[in-house]
Amino acid sequence: MGTEWPGDERRKAKTDVLTVSNASDKPEASLQILNNPEPVEPTAPEPTRAAPLAAGTPLVTGTLSSAITGSDALETPLPAEEGWQRTIRTWTGGLISPKPGPQELARRATLASIRRVYPRPVTVTIAQPAGGSGKTSISVALASTLGNTADHAVLAMDNNETMGTLGVRTRSNGSNLTIIDLLDALEELKNEHTRSGDVQYFTRPQGDNRFAVLASDEDPDRMQMLTRETLNELLEVVQRFWNVIVLDTGNNTRAENWLAGIERSDQLVFPVEMNDKSVVSVLRTIEQLQAMSHLSGNDHYAALCRHAVLVISPGSHCRSVAPERRKELRTMLEQALGEEATFLPVPYEPALDTNGLIDWQLATDESVRAFEKVAAAVSEGMHHAAVRAESTKRNKKEN
After folding, report:
1. pLDDT tens digits, residue range 92-114?
2. Does a structural domain hold residue 83?
3. What is the pTM of this model?
4. Structure confidence by residue, pLDDT tens digits, 160-195
5. Which CATH number characterizes residue 176's domain?
6. Which long-range contacts (CB under 8 A, 24 or more apart) does 361-367 make?
7. Are strands 212-214 and 204-205 parallel, antiparallel or unpaired?
């Protein structure tokens, strides 16, 4: 049985037309065409070629799918883990599961801020020229909070031109190596084959506190090796393996390494107590940084002040300062920094008020919650600063 296909139909139609039109003139030709029709090959339509996409044009331009994936719709709210809501859910075995309360939702938002992803390694400087102001304590609390809450690789670094106390207040874990030992090996570590363990060897891991320490040397003469140039070289190496650097600074705001740390910082934190000595020290630092921006034409220093985070601790002088005076001092700081600065109080914490080792795992829940808010503000500031810097860098390359 033959198979009919469109080509056969076209041949029949063509044959009929030729036969009718030419039969009277050339019957022999008509007969030949009828007996031996020439095959007609089917012609396929020309394929339509799409115009090439311009560089950078997304393949998917729809907004409906992105509206879902870019929202919190993908994140199913977790059951309540705090308050009476958790109690009811636990007692009923999950049959009754009230939504999380506003306090728990606020804390979840705080933790989400800490877990931001940065476009590049970031640095935060803890600055307060007044001695005994809690710089090291806050450095440890902040580094541990960032390390425990987010999956960041955090390094707390003693940026002190004399002898810092970060190495004294944290666990050595059998290591006596310091920032100067790392400097001595720096030339070898600059090459592209350097591994994470090669640099970590000079640091002191803090276990469950989830950060590492690069301690200052106990010899003040050796610490003089820490200059603007050497600090920049150190940061270039360590930021290949740690994406968050916490700089615990000294008291000399004119020291080369202090200035270099400020230049490389994305966020500034001022520990402060509401007493005259502490506030005056912070105000002088603010005025110095603002003057540096004015004289150099570089807004970086003033921007650090505008977006600074002030950690207000009760300190040992809070009871001797009248409430009216504390209010006046805070007003002075607000006027110096502007509306964008963040003021966050933290409670007295026995785990920090010690001359010995600081173990943030011993901190009270109240302090943990307070420093989560500090870490969230710091993380948000570092993220915005890094995004702005990367955007400026791209614009310069394009122009």
Report:
1. 777 777 777 788 888 999 999 99
2. no
3. 0.79
4. 877 788 999 999 989 999 999 999 999 999 999 999
5. 3.40.50.300
6. 361/208, 361/209, 363/141, 367/141
7. antiparallel
